[in-house]
Amino acid sequence: MISVESLTKQYGSFTAVDHVSFTAATGRVTGFLGPNGAGKSTTMRVMVGLTRATSGRVTVTGRDYRELVNPGLEVGVLLDASAQHAGRTGREILTIAQQTMGLSRTRVAETLARVGLTEDEAGRRVRDYSLGMRQRLGIATALIGDPEVLILDEPANGLDPAGIRWMRDLLRGFADQGGTVLLSSHLLHEIEVIADDIVVIGQGRIVAQGSKAELLASAGTLVRTSDPSHLDRLARALHEASVVTTPIDGGLRVDADPELVGEAAHRAGVVLRELRAADGAGLEEMFLQLTAETAREGAAA
Amino acid sequence: MSTATQTPTPSVVPQVPTAPAARHEVRPIPMSRLAKVELRKMFDTRAGFWLMASVAIVAVLASAAVIAWAPDEVINQEFFSTAIGMPLSVVLPIIAILSITSEYSQRTGLTTYTLVPWRGRVITAKVLVTLAIGVVSMVVALAVGAVGNVVGAAIAGLDPVWNIGVQSFGYIVLANILGMLMGFMLGVVFRSSPAAVVAYFVYSLVLPGAFAALAAFQGWFRDLQPWVDVNFAITRLFDNSMTAENWQQLGVTTLVWLWIPLALGLRAVLRAEVK
């Protein structure tokens, strides 16, 4: 489990991370979502002791990162897959990690196989790697110590769709075995595919957090009637049930779950043509708005 | 949220296979292991390998040059050692610089300092390994110089002259260790390979020239130079004529030019953000 408590990081007068608090729970994949420069990487660097927090604290498996005696065996970290000596081979980079952690030599080959790097690829120098191969090597470095927590910054960057599916299955399996996963992304789609819980950050502040199901449900329900003239009747019925509705082309977006909308339609005697959860439209809207604001102010990472 | 599995206790065998915190017996990382890893990192790239190989190559080339071109009267052990030692005293500090700065310039520090978050221990391992390499290099240089001396004397038809004592070899080792510590100092202060290497050449080539010129034209500086010019003070070690005053001058100049900046640089390394 990872616990972030009121974490703040200031650079001079600029506040990169502003009283951020969240928890990445055991057995779940937590997605850390935000536009570029929102403070994701800074938060993750503070987690693993590379950056000092201005205030607040982070604990990983209940302890400060620097209190871990051999961190690689407890927390697997990938912050930047390109931050490697270009002249080393993939196998050499993994061997350095294996030796630092004091693991058996056989783990190098096992882990390379686990992330899908061939013997031939492992023997190449990293300068000749694609970004996707670097990500796999970085994930290998994070996994080799068989940790209980994974902290991955933009791990799906550079992966093709098959690679993203592979990562989803890998992280799913890791969490199902009782591990904790925190991964960041600036792409809503990636997070939706991989994560159970979502923490959304914008301009250094947490703007939303909860389980994926919760956040998507809060986007409400989409409903359309067979006869457009019946739409008003349904809207009135919903308003009587103190539910907020927003008209959208030929239908309504309702801030309630589909069951309640269905009951209201039944009582009002309205025939429905479509009734479904408004899949993440709210989350997407919020995220787009965040991205637009950040882009307009030109805030840098 | 379950917090029952927070502290790994090696003696407790988990009954539930999903209790992740108790999977390992986690032992601290010993310094010997860090040193071994740092040694490996010095040789495992082409650039690193050839930098190391250059120590041996320089020694052999310098000996060959002495045999080929030096007049017979200087064919002695000291001359060979000096010929090898001059280029070596340039290469060794650069090895020291790169051992620190490559973590920043190549950004490998992101992994290194995540696996070992106690940066002081990583730096200590680097210093120990680099100094060990320096001492081994000097022993190799002594051996190559000795072979050169035997071969050179035989070619010139002379008896080999052995004129390096234990003490003078000790001084040479000390001078080179100070040179390597200079490299570390510049490495931790600049944390960038190009900046630190440029600063090293300013330190070892530009400053001595400037001080020498100042001493040549300004009488008041002539007596002051040994107390200000760190290269001047270190060079006395090679002359094998250290007086008590020379030692004091070495202490004063290295305090200002080496030890204080080294302390400030180490403090910066421990505190600075690794990106």
Automatic annotation (TrEMBL), chain A:
Q: What name does UniProt use for this protein?
A: ATP-binding cassette domain-containing protein
Q: What positions does the domain ABC transporter occupy?
A: 2-228
Its transmembrane ranges are none
Q: Which organism is it from?
A: Nocardioides potassii
Provide this UniProt record's keywords sorted from A to Z.
Answer: ATP-binding, Nucleotide-binding, Transport
Q: Does the keyword Magnesium apply?
A: no
Q: Which PROSITE patterns match?
A: ABC_TRANSPORTER_1, ABC_TRANSPORTER_2
* InterPro entries cross-referenced by the UniProt entry: AAA+_ATPase, ABC_transporter-like_ATP-bd, ABC_transporter-like_CS, P-loop_NTPase
Pfam families, from UniProt? ABC_tran
Q: Which residues form a coiled coil?
A: none
Q: Which GO terms describe its molecular function?
A: ATP binding
What is the similarity comment for this entry?
Belongs to the ABC transporter superfamily.
From TrEMBL, chain B:
Pfam families, per the entry: ABC2_membrane_4 (PF12730)
Residue span of region Disordered: 1-21
Superkingdom field: Bacteria
Provide this UniProt record's keywords sorted from A to Z.
Membrane, Transmembrane, Transmembrane helix
**Sequence intervals crossing the membrane:** 49-70, 82-100, 127-156, 168-190, 197-221, 250-270
Q: What name has this protein been given in UniProt?
A: ABC transporter permease
Species assigned in the record = Nocardioides potassii
